[in-house]
C-alpha cells in the first residue's frame, strides 16, 4: 500500500516563520503581524477572525509581494528532493495549511501532489474574506480523509509532519507523525521528532516505515 505524506507549512516547511509573516514583511508590517500571530497562537482569536484581520492588514498586497514573500521565505533544505523521492517510490504527498491558498498553492510547482490553504479573495483584494473558506485544525483531518479517498489509501497509511498544536488533531488521526522543530507540546504527541533545517533528514525518520 502506498503512503500519503501530509505536510504542514508554517514553522514546518518554513523554518521559524510563517506565510503571513513573510507576506507582511514585504509590506513593512512585521510588528502588526507579530501581534496577530501571538493572538492566534494563544487562541485569543480563531482562524476566521485572523483571516479577516490580515486581509485588512494587507490592503496594498500585490502578486509581486506574494512572489517575493514566497521566494524569500526561509524554507527547509531538500523539499523538492523529498517530494521527488516520494513520487518516485509510488507514494503521495500533500501540503495542508491554514495560511492563504494563494501562497500554499505555489508549492505545486515544487512537485507536491496537492496543496490546500485557506481560501482568500483574489489578490489584490477587492472582496471580503468568506469565513467558510478559512481552514481550521479540524479541517486538516477532513482534507486528509479526502486525500485518502483520492489516492486510494487509508488513515493507517498516512504520515503527518507539523510543528504546532494546530497539527495536534491530525497527529491524533494518523499512526505516524513527525514533529518538526516543535516544542514539547507537540513532540509529546508525535511518534518521531526532528530538529534541524533539512527535510530530507526528517523524511529519513519515516522513509522505511513500511
Characterise the protein shown here.
It is a single chain. With 210 residues, this protein is of the alpha/beta class. The protein has two domains: 4-15 and 75-204, Rossmann fold (3-Layer(aba) Sandwich), CATH 3.40.50; 19-71. It contains ten helices and six strands. A six-stranded parallel sheet has the order 3-2-1-4-5-6, sandwiched between helices. The mean pLDDT is 96.
Quick rundown:
The chain is of the alpha/beta class and 210 residues long.
Spatial strand sequence of the major β-sheet: 3-2-1-4-5-6
Reading off the top of the CATH hierarchy, the class of the largest domain is best stated as: Alpha Beta
Query: In total, how many beta strands?
Result: 6
Mean pLDDT: 96
> Domains counted in the coordinates: how many?
2
Q: Work out the radius of gyration.
A: 16 Å
Give the full name of the CATH homologous superfamily of the largest domain: HAD superfamily/HAD-like
The chain-level structural class is alpha/beta
Please provide the ordered H/E string of secondary-structure elements. EHHHHHEHEHEHEHEH
Helix content: 40-55%
The fraction of residues assigned to DSSP E strands is 5-15%
CATH A-level architecture of the largest domain: 3-Layer(aba) Sandwich
Low-confidence stretches: none
Shape: globular
Strand count, sense and barrel status of the largest sheet are:
6 strands, parallel
Distance between the termini: 9 Å
